[in-house]
Records
---
Amino acid sequence: MKSKNLGISALLCGVAFCWQAQAYETAARNAILMDFDTGEYLFEKNIEESVPPASMSKLMTVYILMSKIKDGSVKLDDTFSVSENAWRKGGAATGGSTMFLSIGDNVSVENLIKGIVIQSGNDACIAVAENISGSEEDFAILMNKTAKNLGLKHSSFANSTGLPHPDQKMSMEDLAILSHHIIQEFPDLYHYFSEKEFTYNKIKQGNRNPLLYSMEGADGLKTGHTEEAGFCLAASAVKKGRRLIGVMSGMSSNKERSEEAERLMNWGFREFDNYKIFNKGQVVATSKVWYGKDKTVDLVVQDDVLKTVHLSQTDNIKTTAEFDEPIKAPIKAGQQIGELKITIDGQSPFTVPLVASKDVGKVGLFGRFWANVKYFVFGAK
């Protein structure tokens, strides 16, 4: 196996930072901060613990509904009917958040989305569940199946609303992953999360997400609050083209939720940045070829190599190309030849494939004979 240290710090020589990473603390019982583009976790606190998600679990209800819109089985101007059950269980009389639907209403899907993401309406969630699956119980089965398909390992659902139930649990990691899916999969629908108010039945309500009013670039996603869960928030914001997702639970007040969430997000933007270590198709190394019509082949990365790095570590990025040479022809463009190993102080090493940049055909019988002669006589390959 041949290893070539590529001295990647030279690529980042225009950026120099001298301070060291500082430990970060939060009053939240559970919290995660994720970079959207790289999927890197910038901060973790009890992220795999399954806890009551309160209304943040409405994100799964919205995900399923938006999936139906994306696949064409539901349209924004379709109407869903409101049952007495949805009105009674999700109405104002229960003490929970409500869209103020009325029994027998036929409500557009678009208005139900707004009623969920802006007003956090429990009645809107139940109406969606009943119209998609026939009952909220059957919709919960769909929620659990969807969670499994998305790789959410620490979530279980018993209802569409997040109202207290012993089987209604999610982890901060799962909520961050689900938020990532919503933003990535539904770019034409995601704007509803940033709308600050919505009026239905002549009742205007404001979006409960405090960051929409206090933090530049904030555009989602969902608050939550129950006595057991505390004050919770799944948030996302964009600054200078870079998006972060932060999820927190277990805070003691609406004020603490707002302050802690904004502080965590701003810390992530301030302390970290994304660096493109290699561009898609960029030549990383060159390997000799055995029995090839070309004597060498370039090894490239198939996609941009993007990494989230603490600003104090930008001079501590090391890359090594690992491959066996010579490579025996024939070679196909895109064929994996080796790996690029990237090491950053304070982070686990990771690898990306190195592939051949082009086809390399195999020489004929005479060419192979001459290659063998050169090898045995001159030791050249």
---
Amino acid sequence: MSSFRTIIGSMCVLCTFALFSCENDNPDGGPDITSIGNSIYLPNEAGASVSVDLEFDTDWFISNKTTWFTIQPLSGVAGPATISVAVLEDNPDLREKEASFVITTKDASGQDVGTQYYVIQDVTPGFNIANKVAAVNETAQTYTFTLEGNVKYEAVPDVDWVTINSITYDSTKLQDNQTYSKYMVSHIEMSIEANTGDVRSAQIALQGVDGETNETIEISQYGEISADFKKDFYRRSFLMKCTATWCGPCGTASNQIHAAEGQRPGRMLWSAFYTSSSYGELAEWTGVNNYFNTVGISGWPTMVFNNYVSWAGATDYYVKLIDESVAKSPASTNIAGIAAINSGNIELGLNIASKETMDANVSILILEDSVEHYQAAQGNNYIHNNIARGEMTQVWGDKISLTANTITKLNYSAAIPSYILNQDNLHLYVIVYKEGKFVSSVAPNADYGTIVDNVADIPVNGFTLFEYEE
């Protein structure tokens, strides 16, 4: 138990009021608060208490509506008094638990006046790292890794090609406007040497200065990318799902797609193109209408598979189409790339290996996952994934020229759309279209002028490498 001593009375109230004016700021609905008292700090231990020595010029009483701590006694007469503030439960959070109570006395004219006290409970030590793996390109560079937590630390890499230059911390004040929170945003600035070899990774140990709190982050560095043109490139198919939140069969179609993914993992990448008449949160990207106009929507949902098959409704063709594409439409291209967020932009370094010389189009879609929203026949808390949010290229892609047995390197940059809900849930689809036709024996054929040769999924702040058939 700890204690401190303060004096509350008409003279003290007037002096404090000159420094901290919080009039009409009483959260308990009592008298106007005319001063701020001391902040009371409680350890993170259920049952812990702090003793506060006070002295009053008048009778007094305490207003407290907070349930996670208690105060005894709640009233008294003029003269010295000791109150005890006890916390009832542990604080499991990385941030301080905060609340306040008000002590009401009388001023010289007999009017009620309040002094607000802040109660601050300590934190549970730890780090809050949204993504423990960061990806960087192959060049020599200075890179800053940002994380959150409430413990200062040392950063120790396990390789010699990463050097830690500095660690800086930023914090904000708590509700009392005097105490800085232990919860901090920290920035690890590091120098990374150029990589002329294969992809490599470094483990960086975060060693808390408290001797107890530890964590590990990883820096993966892209390398000099090469392709094995003698091997068969891994074939992925692309499915465009034209959908809407008000569409009942669209939810059924999603369940069919998920089932097909389970049967043929890694073989099909799909994206949800939401109609502009759907809920705004999902349909902010108006570019979908350019695709709708070309596809020709005849019902909801409308599916377009590899740009050579199209159908409306919740019809389960997926597994058969996937198998047919692998067997009869092998990929001529292989896709690798690294993506990162930099100053509000998504930047993509792209490598496309081609077995043949040809003109093609490359389309780069910006996708967002994990948006909780209504879906007809599925409920209000449906999780929407692979939402088409934008495009880093032109509609149906930018024209590129590929040379046989060669890797073509491309770079793209685009601003993050303002309507993105969570940048941590972004990823990119890179789709390579080529001229030609493919006649499917499984489902109704369509002819949009080009077909999908291959597609890859590249995480933002991550990378994807070339893949091959076994």
